[in-house]
Each structure stands twice: as C-alpha cells, then as structure tokens.
Amino acid sequence: MQKEETKKRIEQLTRVLEQHNYSYYVLSNPTISDYDFDMLLEELIQLEKEFPEYLLPNSPSQRVGGEITKTFKTVKHQYPMLSLANSYSKEEMQEFDARVKKGLELDTNSLFAPDIEYVCELKFDGLSISLIYENGQLKQAVTRGDGVQGDDVTTNVRTIRSIPLKLKGDFPPAFEIRGEIFFPRNVFDEINEEREEIGEAPLANPRNAASGTMKMQDSSVVAKRKLDCFMYYVLGENLHFETHSENLDKAKSWGFKISEKSKVCKNIDEVFDFIEFWDKERYKLPYDIDGIVIKVNNYGKQEQLGMTAKSPRWAIAYKFKAAQVSTILESISYQVGRTGAITPVANLKPVLLAGTTVKRASLHNADIISKLDVRIGDTVFVEKGGEIIPKIISVDLTKRNENSAPVEYISECPECGISLKRNEGEANHFCPNENGCPPQIKGKMEHYVGRKAMNIESLGAETIEQLYEAGLLKNIADIYDLKKEQLLPLERMAEKSANNLIDGIEQSKQIPFERVLYAIGIRHVGETTAKKIAKKVKSIDLLMHSTTEELLQIDEVGEIIAKSIQEYFSNETNKKIVERLIEKGLQFSLSEEQLQNTTEKLKDLTFVISGVFQKHSRDELKNMIEQNGGKNTGSISKKTSYVLAGDNMGPEKLKKAEALGVKIISEDDFLNLIS
Ligand code: IVH
Q1: What is the atom index within ligand 1 of the atom nearest the CA of 312?
Q2: What separation in Å is there between the alpha carbon of 268 and the centre of ligand 1?
Q3: What's the CA gap between 6 and 51, in Å, rounded?
Q4: In this structure, what DSSP letter does residue 314 have?
Q5: Fold of 606-674
Q6: How many angstroms separate the CA atoms of 459 and 503, rounded?
Q7: Nearest CA to ligand 1 atom 21
Q8: Which of 22, 270, 529, 595 is the Cys-Cys partner for 265 at CB 3.0 to 4.6 Å?
Q9: How many angstroms is it from 468 CA to the middle of ligand 1?
Q10: Is the shortest distance between the CB of 233 and ligand 1 below 6 Å?
Q11: Burial (0-12, 13-18, 19+ Cβ within 10 Å), 490
Q12: Cα(326)–Cα(323) distance, rounded to whole angstroms?
C-alpha cells in the first residue's frame, strides 16, 4: 500500500472503530459484531506496526494496553480536587438548602422566597478521575491523590472503553472533566470468581478493586478488567454555559458517558423524592452507588457560594444508610489463618440483602461474640456497607429462644486439635502450632511467595497445595530443595512451568533483606515494620540476638512486636528454617549499597511534609528522611522538628506550625541538611 493510502486507511479505521466503541460502551447499542470489530482492529494494529510513524497515542489500538508504567508520575491538579460534605438525613439536607439560600442572600423567612434549582445525581462508588482534553484529544488522566496532586494514569485510562480518546462535535479547545471510574457489579463478581478458582483471596469491594486496578503497572491487564466510567463535572475557562445540567448535556454530545439518571429538581422537595426513589431502587442498578450528589445547577450561583477549604458550598452528598435485614444464626465455624489467628464466621439462614444472597457474616473474635451476646438460633440483624462480607449488628432479643445459651468459644484448633492461646491485649485467639497446623503451613508458604514478599509468581496457592500433599513442601525452606524431576510428575506441570518455577525460586535469592524479613512471616511484622527493622538492625544475626530494649528502640516496634520477634527466634524449628535459608544464599543483611545510602544525619528528628515540591516527589522525600534516620509524621505537634514545606502548603498547617514555633524549611534547605 502507498504511504498516503495507508495514512488514509488508518484514519478511516480509527474513525470507524471509535464510532463502534462509542455505540457499544457509551450508548450500550452495538452496531457491529465482536468478530468484525476485532478484524478491523487487527488491520489497524498491523498497519501501525508497519508504519509506526502513524501510530498516535490516542489510537483505538491503545485500548488493548501493553505499555508498562513502573512508577506513576505525580501531577499537580490545575483545580484542586475537593471532596463533598456528607449528610445523612432529611434535616441535614434542609439545613443545606437553607445555607444555600442564605449564602445567596435570599430572604428565607419570606413566603415567596424563590426556590433553588438543584441537579441530583447518583453518587457512584469508585475512584474519581480528572481528564484533560486539548483540541479534542485525551491528553492526561490523573487520580485524585491528596486533592492537590495525583498520579498520572493516562496509559491505564486509555484502556477504559467508555472514555473517549477523541471528541466529537463542538467541544472547547481545552478543558478538564471529572468522573468516577468503577467496576460494574457483574465484572467485579467475575474477577472474584476467577480469583477464588486460582486460590487468591477475593477483592473486598468494587471501590478498592477499581483503585487497585488503576495503579497496576501493566496496562494490558487493566484493559482486560473492563472498568467503566461516568463523567459528572466539567471545568475550564470560557465554558459558555449557564448551568451544570446544560454543560453535562453538551459533554454527552462530545462523546462522554453521562448518567441518564440525573434529574434537575425545582426545589428541595423534589430532591427528597429523588433520594427516596433511589434508596429503594439502587439495588437494581448494575453498579454500586453509595448516595446521591446534590448540586446547585446555576454556575453564577455556584460561584457566589464558593468553596470552603475542603468542599464546595454549592454541593452536598446524601449518603444512604447501609442495607439491613434480619435472619437466623444457624451455626458458627472457625477459620484458621496463615498466622494461626482464629476467625469465627457466622453461618446464616440465606437471606436476600442489597441484591445478593447472604449466607455468612464475619464475627471477628470472641469479644465481639460476647459483646453482641449472639447465640445459635438467634434472630440477628445483618448489615451490608461497602464491604462484600456483611456484619451482624445486633440480636432481636424479642425472638430469642429461652433455652438458648451463650456461645462457648472453641478452646482447640479446629484444624490440628492443639489448645488455642490468646495473648494479653490481643483480640484473636490463635493456634500456636505454627509449624504443624496445615492451614498455617500452607498459608505461610503462600505469604512467603507473595508479590510483596519473595515474588515467586509461578508458585501459586494451587501448586503449593499440590506440593504439600505430595510431601515435597513442609516449610518455606523446602522450596529451595525442589528439583525439576520432582515437579514434572505433578498434574498440570509441564516442562515449561517446571522451568519457570525453578527459575523463579532461584531469582528470589536476590530479594533484599527487608522483604525476606517480611516474607518469613513473624507474627505482627508487616511490610513497613520489616523495612524499619531491616534498616535499623541491618542483619538477621543481629536481630536474633537483640534484647527487648534494643527492639523497642526501633520505630513502630512496641511490646507486642518485640515479644513476637523473640518468640519467633526462640522456636527451634524457626531457627532451623532460617539457618537453611541462609545456607541457600538468601539476603539476610542489608546490601553494601543500602548500607552506604543510610546515614544517621536526621537521627531523632521528626518531619511533616506539606505541599508540592519541585525536585522530588513526596514519597522520595519521605524515603530520604527515613534513609537518613529521621521520622515522618502526618500532623504537626510540639514534637515536630521541621515542617518541610513545598508550594501550596495548607494554610491550616502553616498556622499551626507558626503557633507552635516549629521551624519551616524548603526543599533546598532539606537537601542541604542531608548533603
Ligand atoms: S461531584 C466538587 N458528582 O464522591 C465536586 N462526585 O465524596 C466534585 N462522586 O470525590 C464531586 N459520584 O469521587 C460528584 N455524581 C457525582 C459523584 C461524585 C461520585 C464521588 C467523587 C467525589 C466523592 C465526594
């Protein structure tokens, strides 16, 4: 094909594919079969491969992802991303209406006080996103972050099919539009079914799942997750409209997905009707909402009302109460976790709640059971908030059977039969048989190979189970004795998977000390604590011989963690496992490079970081503080040594620092301090 012809064909394919995309994902009205769509897309991808000079960042081919983002760039928002004030009752909404009228200097006492026009919208439960368009092209997509600056997630956002990459019609040359990225409920359920099949813990709720997905490094994985997005707020200079509703209608004509459920209400009573309607009907929607957003429609009035430091005065969120239902508690089962912690789970008579059948509820621990005084056979009230697992809120005592007796909490492990223990100050009972209780053994290994620990990807829960059943894995050190010949006879283990597994295990020997320390699974030593310990103590040998006083010197280590570390190393089996891991060549001390980068220059100094910086991101600065022996905290107190201030430091923080006489330093002052 001639170059000119190719260019034309690429342009044509781009147009046609985007139009089909729009019909399918925004209008929910497909205009082509999936097969034909894939054929056209394939042709486009081929042409772009042959003529890479014609591949544009907003080509429909970019919707399948592929680009890897190692770290997301921090970007400052042009307009801060404020949140909304919440309200939970009709009274609070009436107060909002009165505040709006007062703010607009309307005489609220007069019988003829004019009503305010509000727009009611669904409050989508996902993560907010800011999209920047220039000349009709998606330029940048940024997460909310702390409201002042967020992460540039453009590559991932391009894979969301309902977000237009190119606009149609008479769009302004430059503007920002905000909306909510979310998981439709069926997509979320599918993901969790798949996760359960491969033995991974299900994601807790669609909101967290959406946030997690947006931060994934591989955009092709994001593309497969089928996120969706509604837009609800247009910002920019020269928008030429008088009302929010007109602007959203316009945005719809440019190709954005705007909810059809929004309504312009003439007064606060119409707002109440809208709220009442959706409180009942929300379970029929194919996505989660957690309330209604009410906005003053007229832009002039919005401007007159203005904003507080946190939220606009012209809008408010009405939050729905969590759905509740009553059912019968049939029995309680006890689960044993990786660290031996026992979690009681309520088995309920199946009941419909918020659109799903509920059979189980978490009961957390023995204290919660006695506080609720919940008994087998009781009628209980169950509530479902944002989380997937519902909670038991209370007992309907009027329906209690007079022969019922308080729950006798188990005293032996349901898995291995050993007597349970409970440490003072801890909520959960636990099974102390950490190296002999099957779910603990397998759980420990799953934790060990996890992404944040040793990252041995090819050793998933299913393979661990197989190897455990085959008697090849009894503890984490056994992983390093595995041979290819032992793996090959296992079901579903081909030559390639066996090689991958052995390679993955070998590579894990390079994982740095702090992650190994987290991976070996000392109770209460999480990721952050492991980092702090590694930095301070520097090697496992020194850690094993640390006294309680020495351990308590470490940031984040209190009595419970110190005791747990000592208990871990006083257990002969653990000691042997660690010795074997050392022999196998794992990293049990800080590397030379890590040692060189750490100093004690900021020893005993406490920092609060505020604002936006020119040379380093906030995370980088936090790391530098820690690497030089200093401590980061979130709020200013008398104990704060320095406030490290960037641009746009919050006025409240500034006031507080001045009042307490805390020294405020700039990024350059700080860099001098550690140079
Ligand atoms: S408007 C300045 N409209 O709710 C006003 N927000 O609690 C900006 N949200 O951060 C927000 N649906 O993530 C607006 N229809 C809607 C919304 C909505 C969901 C989220 C948004 C915001 C949070 C505030």
Answers
A1: 2
A2: 19
A3: 8
A4: T
A5: Rossmann fold (3.40.50)
A6: 11
A7: 128
A8: 270
A9: 48
A10: yes
A11: middle
A12: 11
129 CB less than 6 Å from ligand 1? no
pLDDT digits (tens, 9 = 90+) for 435-449: 899 999 999 999 999
Return the number of other C-beta atoms located less than 10 Å from residue 105's C-beta.
8
For residues 122-131, give the mean pLDDT. Answer: 96
Structural domain spans, the chain: 3-64, 86-319, 438-510, 513-595, 606-674
Percent of the chain with pLDDT over 90: 64
Residue 201 has pLDDT above 70, yes or no: no
- Which helix (H) or strand (E) segment is 353 a member of? strand 342-353
Name which of 107-116, 390-399, 429-438 the model is least confident about.
107-116
- Read off the pLDDT of residues 629-652 as tens digits, 9 standing for 90 and up: 888 887 888 889 999 998 877 777
Measure the CA–CA gap between 301 and 105, rounded to whole angstroms.
11
- What architecture is domain 86-319? 2-Layer Sandwich (3.30)
DSSP code per residue over 589-644: B--HHHHHH---TTTT-EEEEESB-SSS-HHHHHHHHHHTT-EEESS--TT--EEE
**Is the Cβ atom of 231 under 6 angstroms away from ligand 1?**
no
CATH architecture observed for domain 3-64:
Orthogonal Bundle (1.10)
Cα torsion 100, 103, 109, 112 to 10°: value is -70
**Best probe residue, ligand 1, of 79, 285, 293, 313 (max atoms within 8 Å of C-beta):** 293
How many whole angstroms separate alpha carbon 51 and alpha carbon 47? 6
Q: pLDDT tens across 63-98, in order?
A: 988 777 878 999 999 999 999 999 999 999 999 999
CATH 1.10.150.20 fits 438-510, yes or no: yes
- 3-state per-residue secondary structure call for 173-241: CEEEEEEEEECCHHHHHHHHHHHHHCCCCCCCCHHHHHHHHHCCCEHHHHHHCCCEEEEEEEECCCCCC
pTM of this prediction?
Answer: 0.63
Catalytic positions, written as ranges: 123
Distance in Å, CA 480 to ligand 1 centroid = 50
> Does residue 150 surpass a pLDDT of 80?
yes
Q: Report pLDDT for 504.
A: 95
**CATH T-level topology, domain 513-595:** DNA polymerase; domain 1 (1.10.150)
Taking the CA atoms of residue 656, residue 657, residue 660 and residue 661 in that order, the dihedral angle to the nearest 10 degrees is -150
Which of 86, 119, 232, 292 maximizes ligand 1 atoms within 8 Å of its Cβ, making it the mutation to test the pocket?
Answer: 232
Going from the Cα of 123 to the center of ligand 1, the distance in angstroms, rounded, reads 6
Tokens found for residue 108? 């609220």
Do domains 86-319 and 606-674 share one topology? The answer is: no
| Tokens of residue 470, six digits | 């085959």
Phi and psi (nearest 5°) for 497? Answer: -65, -40
